[in-house]
Design a protein that fits this description.
two-stranded antiparallel ribbon; 93 residues
Length: 93
């Protein structure tokens, strides 16, 4: 049935190419998430190490990036921070 739309490769690409966070900042984000989860003992409910939960949350953000890009493709426009949606030209991004 074709390529799976939510493949690990698509999520990994979103994590690597996210326009919102350079790769170095994602690592900082992951470290900060780990610290916040630990500080609030948020890992206790699932008995999952905080760094695993932080990694999961980082993956959720990347999956959301994929979803929003697909939504923009479907609507035929791109959104930019603080900007107005602009129509996409066919065959261009």
């Amino acid at each position: 049935m074709g390529e799976h739309r939510w493949s690990e490769a698509a999520i990994a690409e979103a994590m690597a190419t996210s326009p919102l966070e350079p790769k170095e900042q994602i690592m900082t984000l992951e470290q900060e998430l780990t610290a916040v989860l630990n500080r609030h003992s948020a890992e206790n409910g699932s008995n999952t190490p905080d760094y695993i939960l932080a990694e999961y949350l980082k993956g959720c953000l990347a999956a959301f990036d994929v979803a929003t890009r697909r939504r923009e493709d479907w609507y035929g426009c791109r959104h930019s921070p603080g900007g107005v949606p602009s129509p996409q030209k066919e065959g261009k991004e």
